[in-house]
TrEMBL record:
InterPro entries in UniProt: Complex1_LYR_dom, Complex1_LYR_LYRM1, LYRM1
Native source species: Stegastes partitus (bicolor damselfish)
Domain of life: Eukaryota
Protein's recorded name: LYR motif containing 1
Origin organism lineage: Eukaryota, Metazoa, Chordata, Craniata, Vertebrata
Segments forming domain Complex 1 LYR protein: 16-79
Protein family per UniProt: Belongs to the complex I LYR family.
GO cellular component, one term: mitochondrion
Length: 129
């Protein structure tokens, strides 16, 4: 049986997650593309809803408190960045493939770890392309 404190945390996280999800859907309903073109607005609204559904479903099985916290932080960061820049798409990061050198040379595994650590919070759910 889970402890009472962990149940309270789960309930608190559930309420926070649902509140964020509703906020994203409300943003999508009122979203206006920066270009002012109706088709761009519709495309961006659909993207916002689809991205929210995909990421929330992808993470609904999380039980680790730290992972849940990181996902919530990512969501909040993406909301704020999207609203600020009027762009719903993730902002690109510019790291050359082997651009983070280590003192011992350019070992691929170390490079991959450094790239993952350097990835901004708002892109944690996105795979490298």
């Amino acid at each position: 049986h889970p402890s009472r404190a962990s149940c309270e945390q789960i309930i608190c996280h559930t309420a926070t997650v649902l509140s964020l999800y509703r906020r994203v859907i409300r943003i999508a309903r009122t979203w206006q593309a920066q270009s002012g073109v109706t088709s761009d607005t519709e495309t961006e609204r659909k993207y916002i809803v689809q991205e929210a559904r995909t990421l929330f479903r992808q993470n609904q099985q999380l039980t680790d408190q730290e992972s849940i916290k990181k996902c919530l932080e990512e969501c909040e960061a993406r909301i704020e960045i999207g609203l600020h820049y009027r762009n719903p798409y993730p902002r690109a990061t510019y790291l050359p493939p082997l651009g983070l050198a280590t003192q011992k040379g350019r070992k691929l595994r170390a490079q991959q770890r450094l790239r993952k650590q350097a990835k901004p919070i708002y892109l944690q759910s996105h795979d490298e392309t």
